[in-house]
């Protein structure tokens, strides 16, 4: 099997990073939210059955704050300003996932109502950290010269979702899920392009290091 055509090698390389898995988790999250809305609105599916995809997504995201801690300690950018912004952004994600896990523990395991005022404040705090991470991404992309039209569109789609979550306002789950799903699809696609470019670079290095056999 030729290495460059090995789909399994590409898949393993793609899934080997925390950022890739984070994008896939978001795709699952908003895909399940939009699917839940569609099932309830158009097929009159039982609400408990429609919650199943969301429950699976929460399982995937459990303890993801530990991955953020690992990302934080591996920040190695040469510019101090970039290091500070990256660590601030990772810190925002750390607390986002930590609080989210605590909310899941309280509501799913300890039986606290999701409508409890304290739980609602925690959920709003989650979205506050997410909103801060989005805003930090704009100057970070500019400094690292990595901003593209697709990445900018993704962040612009994320902004209203995070803002609504922070405000605590109720909006259509269909609209909320559609915005998040579109953003997540862009995130997975752009991540795939970025990771495959690194994959090809490694492949070329391996070819260069392979001795010719007479």
UniProtKB/TrEMBL annotation:
GO terms for biological process: peroxisome fission. The keyword Membrane applies. This is Uncharacterized protein. Its main location: membrane. It comes from Phytophthora rubi. It holds the Pfam family PEX11. GO terms for cellular component: peroxisomal membrane. It is found in: Peroxisome membrane. Keywords: Membrane, Peroxisome, Peroxisome biogenesis. PANTHER family: PEROXIN 11 (PTHR12652:SF50), PEROXISOMAL BIOGENESIS FACTOR 11 (PTHR12652).
């Amino acid at each position: 099997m030729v290495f460059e055509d090995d789909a399994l090698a590409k898949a393993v390389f793609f899934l080997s990073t925390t950022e890739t898995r984070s994008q896939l988790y978001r795709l699952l999250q908003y895909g399940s939210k939009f699917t839940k809305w569609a099932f309830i609105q158009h097929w009159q599916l039982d609400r408990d059955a429609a919650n199943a995809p969301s429950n699976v997504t929460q399982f995937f995201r459990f303890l993801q704050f530990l991955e953020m801690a690992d990302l934080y300690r591996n920040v190695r950018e040469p510019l101090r300003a970039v290091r500070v912004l990256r660590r601030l952004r990772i810190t925002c994600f750390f607390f986002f996932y930590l609080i989210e896990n605590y909310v899941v523990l309280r509501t799913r395991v300890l039986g606290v109502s999701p409508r409890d005022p304290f739980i609602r404040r925690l959920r709003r705090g989650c979205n506050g950290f997410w909103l801060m991470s989005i805003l930090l991404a704009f100057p970070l992309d500019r400094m690292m010269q990595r901003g593209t039209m697709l990445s900018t569109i993704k962040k612009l789609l994320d902004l209203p979702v995070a803002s609504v979550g922070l405000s605590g306002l109720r909006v259509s789950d269909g609209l909320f899920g559609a915005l998040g799903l579109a953003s997540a699809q862009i995130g997975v696609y752009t991540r795939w392009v970025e990771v495959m470019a690194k994959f090809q670079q490694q492949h070329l290095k391996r070819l260069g290091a392979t001795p010719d056999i007479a």
